[in-house]
Batch of 2 targets.
Target 1
Amino acid sequence: MSTLYETALQSAGVLPTVQVAFTTALAFTAGIAFCLSLWVIPVILLASTPASAVVQYIEMIDRGGRYLQPTSRLLALGLFSLTWLIARHPDPAISMAWRYYAICGVLLVLVAPWETFMVFPINDRIKEMGAQLEKAGNAEGNPATKAELERLLRKWRDMHGGRIALLVLATFASAVAIVDT
């Protein structure tokens, strides 16, 4: 008697559909992360005042916290589930693909410490700068404030490259799993 899992996963097209869906979700998430660095930060750097740049930046990171973080967590959970399901597949040629999805899951899990240690301190400092500008009632700030903000935004863009790289590597590993099965 076959389990629901075996019946579903062995049905024509189910496994490839799930694999393509995860690969697409990974690529989409990587693309969003890439756009933040490629387009959003350069646009924020064009803001007329440091206070305006800070407001735009805080909006961007708030949306990232609302959408990108939960998406990455759900993808990691889904990839670990897919890893477990594929490892149980009765066809040894397919069950060997569990390794690729385990790699994907690990890469996604690595995004959290990367952001915690490399990106979030920049977020905190820029928020602090915004509070200082608001308290002083000076949207323009001073030349040192503007220079520090620009440096921090560029550093964020560069550090965000770590998230992009991890997502691109996970997308690649997921694509290799499709080809390999």
Target 2
Amino acid sequence: MAGHGIPRVSAPGTGTGLSSEQELRRIQNYKDLVDDVNTEMLEKNFTKDIFNMTSKLLEMNPEYYTVWNYRRLLLRSFFTQTTFSAKTDNPNDLSDIAIIQQYIIDDLAFLMPILRKFPKCYWIWNYRIWLLDEASRLLPSATAYDIWQKELALVGKMLSLDSRNFHGWGYRRKVVGELETLSVKTNSPTASMTEREFDYTTKMIESNLSNFSAWHRRSKLIPRLLNERNANQSEKKAFLDKELELIQRALWADPDSKDQSLWFYHQYLISNFEPSSNVDTIVPELSTDDKLEYVKAQIEDLREMLDGAETCKWIYQRLIDLASTGRRLDGQWPVESSLIETWLDKVTELDPPRKGRWDDLRLEFTR
């Protein structure tokens, strides 16, 4: 399976280059190892030897999710055997904390070569998050913070290799959220990472305009960003203008692009012009006149964009959306009726699977 042009590595045993005899021997060794691990776990023999056996098994087949659960049980057993209180200031407990920390660091390191070989295996990433959560649960906040901070560097490298991997973006959100939580616990003066993450989306968008995950992440950060800045109406309006300029430049770079990520972000921005506002609106204080001015300006810009991009359905769709928004604002269509009819005819031609939707909009237009 491939994702965003990055191929997923085949399962073990595919294209190994081994002879039939060698392959059969390898398969038998694998089956014997599986039987041994299952038997020992059934008897609750939670030992280092069994832990090492799970390592060998997972290196051979990381998709065997039951073995990841075995590994969790084994580590929990080891953690319990080290009699310590995780959040204590007692210096006598430091050795126990260090033991737990080393278990976690060593296991994170064990995962790295497997991740490089199988970067899209869910079970590895799920287990890795579990390990990091254990660090937060069992270790002092400052120690756990350092471990999570290194994880942020790791996910940054991962996204530099596959910038549109939405699993990677989801993983990054988890890491950033935990770092913010731990920052609060350590009384850090800069607990919020919103500004830093917003700048990161800008960097990723500039390197690849088609990065849907970066645009989506940006839209989710904006309300929090403006709130943390204590932005007033004028500052919010300036921010909206800057975002509209950014997306317009991106759209103009390839007006005939079929890239939905740009149009979805554009849709998010123009939702600010709807008559009723919601909590995620960038400038909830916009007057009706201001919204109408924005709608008309956007229509004019998109009409210019049509020149040379007459086969891009997204432009017609957005023009129709804006025209409908303008009518909801003051009861008047913001452009002449012949133009709207032309847009509806064209989008129906370019997007026949949604003909029913365009017919419904045509009825709205005639009312």
